[in-house]
Amino acid sequence: MKIANQLTIGGTVVSFEFFPPKTEEAVRQLERTISEIAPLQPTFTSVTYGAGGAARDKTIDLVTRIKRETGIEAMAHLTCVGSTRDDLAAVLDRLANSGVENILALRGDPPKGQTAFTPVDGGLRYANELVRLIRDRFGDRFCLGGAAYPEKHIECPNPAVDLDNLRRKVDEGLEFLITQLFFDNRHYFDFVQRARARGITVPIIPGIMPITNAAQIERFTQACGATLPYELADELDRRRNDPAAVLQLGVSHATSQCFGLLKGGAPGIHFYTLNRSTATREIFGELKAAGLVAQQPH
């Protein structure tokens, strides 16, 4: 089912994001995670995109496998990185032939070692160009989602310009948005208010990453421009050498975030899992016990 239709049905959308594993141990870890999350019956899962041949194939294979073997709707990420228009068209053909109905259309981050995004010859510069390519070639065959940045994209110096860029993507044919991670719900609600004032009316699903490792989350926030509230950062620093205490803090904070978001009117929650399930399963259980999520329609 297309995610836009699931959003229309109503109820709380709950989704989990995975990335293609690179080692045999990582494959086994992801298999365990999927088997543990599948009984929760999330609305959908998503799989990040690996630019380049082998990594790209893993994304397509993993998306189709999840959908075929678990019955859970799966969304493929697609980026402009390292690809010409013809390359992207070929990937889209493969996704369509595999029965994939949902795509998260992204520009993508600069390749490792590069500080600025530069398209290949014959490639695309921006996500709105990717959305237009998909719509021109496939019409409504795919349901398209995109990324949104409550604290603005790290490469954009002006939040108003960042919002104009988002409006441009939506106008090309996005049907919903998923936000970058954040740790203060005010960032989300303020962002939604600004987006609505700018004429962006599609559903905006908040993205949540439970903290499970202090150094890791600090790297992520530095890379994406998200900020840790002072009190959370201070407590995290006190616990950084106690993994169990860090996990407890991360689950507690993310659970509180999810309660506040859903009670405040967010259409659902998108969990960045890092291919592990412990934290997100705990949070899901708390939300279900509170009646904030129910069995998902498929």
Give the structure's gist in a few sentences.
By secondary structure, the chain is an alpha/beta fold. It has 11 helices and 8 strands.
- Beta-strand fraction estimate: 5-15%
Q: Shape from CA axes? A: globular
Q: Number of helix segments?
A: 11
Name the CATH architecture. Alpha-Beta Barrel
pLDDT < 50 stretches: none
Number of strands: 8
Indicate how many domains the architecture comprises.
1
The main sheet comes to: 8 strands, parallel, barrel
Termini Cα gap: 7 Å
Order of helices and strands: HEHEHEHEHEHEHEHHHEH
Mean residue pLDDT: 93
Radius of gyration (Å): 18 Å
CATH hierarchy class name: Alpha Beta
CATH topology: TIM Barrel
Portion of residues within helices = 40-55%
> In terms of structural class, how would the helical and strand content be classed?
alpha/beta
| Strand line-up of the largest beta sheet | 1-2-3-4-5-6-7-8
Q: Would you give an account of this structure?
A:
It contains 11 helices and 8 strands. With 298 residues, the protein is an alpha/beta fold. Helix 5 (127-138) runs parallel beside helix 6, helix 9 (230-239) runs antiparallel to helix 10 (243-263) and helix 10 (243-263) packs across helix 11.
